[in-house]
Amino acid sequence: MLTISRLARQFNLSRSTLLYYDRIGLLRPSGRSASNYRLYSRFDRQRLERICRYRSMGLSIDAIRTIIDAPHDGLESALNERLAGIERQMRVLRNQQRVIRSLLKIRITEDMWEGLTREKWTTLLHATGMSEADMVQWHIEFERLFPDDHQAFLESLDIPEGDIDAIRSMSRQGKR
C-alpha cells in the first residue's frame, strides 16, 4: 500500500491532484492507515496510471471517468472525439498561420490599419483561403484567448455596437 505522497511522487503529480481525484470520485484510496492516512493499492496505482495516460492525450476528466467506468463503450468514442478536436485546432492554427504569412508579405506600417473596414478585412481573409466557418472559428479563438483585444479590433473596423455584441456573444458560445 502506498501513501498519497508516495503515489503522487511516482507519477510526478501534486498531492492536491490526488486529493481532487478522490473528492470527485475518480480515484479513491482502497484503505486508510491506523492514523487515517489514505492508502493506495496496486489496483489504485494501475487506475492512476490509466488516468495519467488519458490526461496526457488531452482527454477531459469526464471522458476519463466514462472510459474507466465503461472501457468497452467509452474509449473509442472519447479518442475519436479528442482526435476531431485536435484536427479542428490544427485547422484553426493553419488558417491563422496562412493569414499571418499573407500579412507578413505586405509591408506592415503604423498607418496600414487606417481605413480598414469590416469588408476589407473579410475580403483579405477570403483571399488567404479562409471560409466563413474558418472566420467564425477565428472569432471564437480570438474571443477565448484575447477578449479585450477582440472587442478593440472589432471596434477598429467601425462595426456597429450591436453587431459587435452579436459577434462576441456567438464567439463566447462557440457557435459556428
Describe this structure in words.
- The model has no long low-confidence stretch (mean pLDDT 86).
- The chain folds into two domains: 68 residues, Multidrug-efflux Transporter Regulator, Chain: A, Domain 2 (Orthogonal Bundle), CATH 1.10.1660; 98 residues, no CATH class.
- α1 crosses α2, α4 runs antiparallel to α5 and α7 crosses α9.
- It has nine helices and three strands, in the order βααββααααααα.
- The chain is elongated.
- A three-stranded antiparallel beta sheet has the order 1-3-2.
- With 176 residues, it is mainly α.
Structure, briefly:
The protein has 176 residues and is mainly α. It has helices spanning 4-10, 15-23, 42-56, 61-69, 71-105, 118-127, 132-145, 147-156, 161-173; strands at residues 2-3, 31-32, 38-40.
Radius of gyration: 24 Å
Overall mean pLDDT stands at: 86
The secondary structure category is: mainly alpha
Beta-strand fraction estimate: under 5%
**Major sheet: order of its strands?**
1-3-2
**Main β-sheet description:** 3 strands, antiparallel
For the secondary structure, the number of strands is 3
What is the overall silhouette? elongated
Separation of termini? 50 Å
Order of helices and strands: EHHEEHHHHHHH
Please indicate the count of domains.
2
Total count of helical runs of at least 4 residues: 9
| Low-confidence residue ranges | none
Helix content: 55-70%
